Amino acid sequence: MISSENTADIGIIGGTGVYDPEIFEEVKEIKVYTPFGETSDLVSIGDYKGIKVAFIPRHGRGHSIPPHKINYRANIWAFKQLGVSRIIASSAVGSLRKEYKRGDFVIPDQFIDRTKKRLDTFYEGGQLCHISSADPFCPQLREFFIDFTRHTGLKIQQRGTYVCIEGPRFSTRAESKLFRLWNAHIIGMTVYPECMLAREAELCYVSVAMVTDYDVWAEKPVSAREIIKTMGESVEKFKKMILNAIPKIPKERECSCAYCLKDALV
């Protein structure tokens, strides 16, 4: 049973390099028990200008959980239990397009799932759920961040198809070139099933992706060291953007995310 003081309005999932809940005030850590096992780490709950925020580091503190081993269901379930209605998820991605440059931010609007063995639904029997994934990200949050970032001076790509691969390995050259033929823009390892589980939980979800490198189609092998270096340069920009954005996020949900299950349950 979650106590009333351990609730939050907004959930932040910190991706690669984003592990700092101390940007909020009066932070406390709690353990949330879920039917799906343990969350990636303790959930930090803090306050920012009167808004309660919950924070989970996707890979755990110290970046110890690989993308294919993340308990996505537990993380999303925990946010739902805490009263979160909106999720802002950061991630590091590779670029599949020359115009999506290192250091750019991307607000993706579509994904292509290339994962293989992830548990990707809360409905495994008894009651069936066929959730729509036509538009997998919250349109209201996407439009908010697109409009908000126009005034920040940051380079923002307003659309993007995110190819989600299983990991932890990077793509072969042949795979990377194939994804480009599919008109994909960025590649990463974490947006799926995270965004679709958020839909099943009827939570708004937006991905704020940070381009750290060009994928191997560009004839230069991807380097984990290069990714970490670029992330170090982008993380502070991400934190500043999120802090400035949180108080301005509209209070009312004017999207259909809260009703995703209306026509999905059988």
How would you portray this structure in words?
The chain has 266 residues and is an alpha/beta fold. A hairpin with a 2-residue loop joins β3 (43-48) and β4 (51-57). Strands 1, 2, 3, 4, 5, 6, 7, 8, 9, 10 and 11 form an 11-stranded mixed β-sheet that branches. α1 (72-81) packs parallel to α4 (191-200). The protein has one domain: 3-Layer(aba) Sandwich (Rossmann fold). The mean pLDDT is 91. Helix content is 23%, strand content 23%. It is globular, with a radius of gyration of 17 Å.
Mean pLDDT: 91
Structural class call reads alpha/beta
- Any idea what the CATH superfamily is called? Nucleoside phosphorylase domain
CATH topology: Rossmann fold
Low-pLDDT sequence parts: none
The radius of gyration is 17 Å
Number of helices: 5
Number of domains: 1
Helix proportion range: 10-25%
> First CA to last CA: what distance?
28 Å
Number of strands: 11
In the CATH hierarchy, what is the class? Alpha Beta
Shape: globular
Quickly give the CATH architecture: 3-Layer(aba) Sandwich
Portion in strands: 15-25%
- Please summarize the sheet with the most strands: 11 strands, mixed
Write the layout of secondary structure elements.
Layout lengths: L9 E5 L10 E6 L12 E6 L2 E7 L14 H10 L4 E10 L9 E2 L3 E5 L24 H11 L6 E2 L3 E5 L7 H9 L4 E3 L2 H10 L3 E11 L9 H22 L21
Parallel strand pairs: 1-4, 1-5, 5-11, 6-8, 7-9, 9-10
Antiparallel strand pairs: 2-3, 3-4, 5-10, 6-11
Helix pairs in contact: 1-4
